[in-house]
Amino acid sequence: MSTVVEHEAASLLRFATAGSVDDGKSTLVGRLLHDSKSVLADQLEAVERASLGRGQDAPDLALLTDGLRAEREQGITIDVAYRYFATPRRRFILADTPGHVQYTRNMVTGASTAELAVVLVDARNGVVEQTRRHAAVAALLRVPHVVLAVNKMDLVDYAEPVFATIAEEFTAYAASLGVPEVTAIPISALAGDNVVSPSAHMDWYGGPTVLEHLETVPVDTDPTDDPARFPVQYVIRPQTAEHPDYRGYAGQIASGVLRVGDEVSVLPSGRTSTVTGLDALGRAVDAAWAPQSVTVTLADDLDISRGDLLAPAAGAPAVTQDVEATVCHVADRPLAAGQRVLLKHTTRTVKAIVKEIPSRLTLDDLSQHPAPGELAANDIGRVRIRTAEPLALDAYADSRRTGSFLLIDPSDGTTLTAGMAGTAFAAQAAQDTAADDEGWDF
């Protein structure tokens, strides 16, 4: 029971792995699970049987995450594999993402909610095109922490100069994208060096192992640092003899803190009221913060419905019908200028039209291709969208939750595109005064 309580009290870290094909992502994840004793006995037995069936003497730990039959047959990762595990210090949700160029959209999915990205590099190959692509995606998605795991150090005789050269090149490239923090760790996922336990072969390295860094990287942020955002999910009107006039607004706080007595604006209408009550888990509280789910009551009976946003009257986001954003196209069918779509932002879904696609980004060298006309699967580009109804949209740089949206096909509900409002890279945001209105200005 004490262990359960400790796990419940521990903080949660969401992280994703990325890297080129055969860099050892799935092996790293398997080693992490195995050496941290997070693998059940029957799972390990199944992996051992599958490994023997393939003629391998030792268990292939990559099979712990590569669950699709096609993945096991080809020895590659195709889909995003999610795994949940915990240590006494922290709980983890990890996403093992594919390395192929054609699965860039899968990495976007896995890293979209990640607080840390582990980018693997084969020590024999160094930083390659796909490494730069994954670093750029992590920068686009504003992942706050990046770990460079230089893998297969056993195949380069654990040479420190090899690691130092790769770490210097990657760190410089990441800094040019505005990545705030890079931690480089030399590892051998196959042998287990510096994954969970320190390596006996690299006494020149004095930093943490991968698991030590995952357990100690700061992820808990002060909710008071961000302005409050509360998307209304459901309006509660019991209209019973016990609660004849009760009107509550249920949802999950996206960011910041809500307190009884706060003056809030209801967007997009712009009407204001005062918070008179907060109910969390069936009891009244004086304050609540992200990501708690609560019911809010207001002093005034306003016309509020699902999709409206409550925000501080003094710091409400701008309301607009013209959205300019960076998007990653995830559907097989292309996204074209002039296409009619549905735009889903938090709990609000509105009709929209893609007015223009100013540019498409080539992640290999960060060059732009102006006016491509359409975006194909895995493409990342800039779009301008006109919505039928106003939206209270933050910049993605300010809020990953209220600055993101989805474009949906209105005919069948297929998700077409994942969008991030505002400027693309953090490094570019610092130079916005000189930015080119037609797209990126690198």
Question: What report would you give on this structure?
Answer:
The chain has 442 residues and is α+β, with helices and mostly antiparallel strands. The protein has 9 helices and 25 strands. The strands form 5 sheets. Strands 7, 8, 9, 11, 12, 13, 15 and 16 form an 8-stranded antiparallel β-sheet that branches. Strands 2-3-1-4-5-6 form a 6-stranded mixed β-sheet, with helices on both faces. It has a 6-stranded antiparallel beta barrel with strand order 17-23-20-19-24-25. Helix 7 links the parallel strand 5 and strand 6. Helix 6 packs across helix 7. The termini are far apart.
Blueprint of the fold:
Blueprint: H1 2-9, E1 11-19, H2 25-35, H3 41-53, H4 69-74, E2 81-86, E3 90-96, H5 104-111, E4 116-122, H6 129-140, E5 145-151, H7 160-177, E6 182-186, H8 210-216, E7 230-231, E8 234-236, E9 248-252, E10 257-259, E11 263-267, E12 271-280, E13 283-285, E14 287-289, E15 293-298, E16 309-312, E17 319-329, E18 335-336, E19 340-345, E20 348-362, E21 367-370, E22 374-375, E23 380-392, E24 404-408, E25 415-421, H9 426-429
Parallel strand pairs: 1-3, 1-4, 4-5, 5-6
Antiparallel strand pairs: 2-3, 7-16, 8-9, 9-15, 10-14, 11-12, 11-16, 12-13, 12-15, 17-23, 17-25, 18-22, 19-20, 19-24, 20-21, 20-23, 24-25
Helix pairs in contact: 6-7
